[in-house]
Design goal:
This protein folds into two domains: 224 residues, PmbA/TldD superfamily (PmbA/TldD fold, 2-Layer Sandwich), CATH 3.30.2290.10; 216 residues, no CATH class. 24% of the residues lie in helices and 36% in strands. It contains nine helices and 17 strands. It has a six-stranded antiparallel sheet with strand order 3-2-1-4-5-6. Helix 3 packs parallel to helix 4.
Length: 450
């Protein structure tokens, strides 16, 4: 699996996109816009899926997108098109202006302040197109699935999927900002079933990376999916009670995702978050920090600038347990009387700092409790912080897995859950924008069999 060298065709397309962006901005200004921003991008993708060796999914294509937002005396209008002809772009600009004229003024609307925009950026090594022919992609997916099916006790398959995507484009605005962006993302996944009849269990495994060379090999993904499914055979509920809960790194990120959503500007200015007024409040133990590191080379969520062109930078969200900032775009910052944090579009490699050891060492530390490897449902209220989700995993006795568990619910209150984090692993899962290790919470309510 090898990435291909830089494609001259992409360089030509980026040059064309830059010309179109500058032309569109000039047209918008000439038509009366006070400010405007545009984004032009092209995406290329290949996706295949097999089940029991048969091809079930094949998608390959290229898409282009043009979007423009105009600001007209405090009014905002946006429009988009997948036709890059000059006639279509002119019509799109006119449509955005018509929409702006029909809306109410909003004093928070507008471009970022010029001093917040990125003016230079590091090479983040995000561009690794995969010169992959469809036949090769199908063969890789088949090898992955077959490696899993060959493991004793695997009874069926939900399939293996390979996805490879690349996107490149430019973002520009009337403050003089014009910057290219490009990135690739590749993944391989397999889902298998083990056991018999109604007690059959499903589990999966996947690998994802910017560069195909960084993916786990196909056979390893299939075998790991099989191992996970086989471990769950014989799962049963446990009695209701209050116990320590260890969240596997793969699902622990969802806990931090609730923090991210609650700390986001849109939830805050709408008063729809339990973190309203929580700046500088201790939320976690003092040994734990969460730091955004957007400039990590080949990072899953690395970026030199956010969705508005604001420069990204390394900065803490949680520092020594305390919430030290919110996550703000230019608009939400103005609504709150604050300044953008460069988080239009989300967080960029939010990493837990302070973890030690791995899941096994945390199980030994826990001694007895529930290891959660899967979460289900959407029972989270970000206004109140109430948390209740279906879960599956393993019961732990004497620091080791005793038996698999299913049909339970883990519940609590997010502020109490955060404050109750007793330990964190250094086994960070770097496949997403939130990168944490296993998290041990000292006590949660587990609703199971009465």
């Amino acid at each position: 699996m090898q990435s291909s060298p830089r494609n001259p065709d992409v360089e030509l397309r980026l040059s064309l996109f830059a010309e179109l962006a500058e032309s569109a901005l000039a047209q918008a200004r000439a038509a009366g816009a006070d400010q405007a921003e545009v984004s032009l991008s092209e995406g290329r993708s290949l996706a295949v899926g097999v089940r029991l060796g048969e091809l079930e999914r094949f998608e390959s294509g290229t898409s282009v997108d043009f979007s423009i937002t105009v600001y007209l005396r405090g009014r905002t209008g946006s429009a988009s098109s997948n036709d890059l002809s000059r006639e279509s772009l002119a019509a799109c600009i006119a449509r955005a202006l018509d929409i702006a004229r029909a809306t109410e003024p909003d004093p928070a609307a507008g471009l970022p302040d010029p001093e917040d925009l990125a003016r230079d950026w590091p090479e983040l090594d995000l561009w690794h197109p995969w010169a992959l022919e469809p036949e090769e992609a199908i063969a890789i997916a088949r090898r992955c699935e077959q490696a899993g099916l060959s493991q004793g006790g695997i009874r069926n398959s939900e399939g293996a999927q390979l996805d490879s995507a690349e996107v490149f484009g430019v973002h520009a605005n009337t403050h003089g900002f014009l910057a290219p962006f490009r990135g690739t993302q590749h993944s391989l996944a397999c889902s298998l079933l083990a056991g018999e009849g109604e007690r059959m269990q499903r589990d999966a495994h996947y690998t994802a990376a910017r560069r195909p060379e960084d993916l786990e090999d196909a056979e390893s993904v299939g075998r790991r999916a099989a191992e996970r499914a086989l471990q769950r055979v014989g799962a049963r509920p446990i009695p209701t009670g209050r116990h320590p809960v260890l969240f596997d790194a793969e699902v622990a990120a969802s806990l931090i995702a609730h923090l991210v959503h609650a700390a986001s500007g849109a939830a805050l200015y709408k008063k729809a978050s339990f973190l309203v007024g929580a700046l500088d409040r201790a939320l976690f133990p003092g040994w734990l920090s969460l730091v955004e590191r957007p400039h990590r080379r080949r990072g899953a969520a690395s970026a030199a600038f956010d969705a508005e062109g604001v420069a990204t930078r390394e900065q803490p969200l949680i520092e020594n347990g305390r919430l030290v900032r919110y996550l703000l775009s230019s608009y939400t910052a103005r609504k709150l009387g604050m300044r953008t944090t460069g988080n239009a579009g989300g967080v960029f490699n939010l990493e837990l700092v302070g973890g030690q050891g791995d899941r096994e060492s945390l199980m030994r530390s826990m001694g007895r409790g529930l290891l959660v490897t899967e979460l289900m449902g959407q029972g989270v209220n970000l206004v109140t912080g109430d948390y209740s989700r279906g879960a599956a995993g393993f019961w732990v006795e004497d620091g080791a897995i005793a038996f698999p568990v299913e049909e339970v619910t883990v519940a609590g209150h997010l502020p109490a859950i955060f404050a109750g984090v007793a330990a964190a692993g250094a086994d960070l899962d770097r496949r997403g924008s939130i990168q944490v290790g296993s998290l041990l919470v000292e006590g949660m309510t587990i609703a199971g069999r009465d």
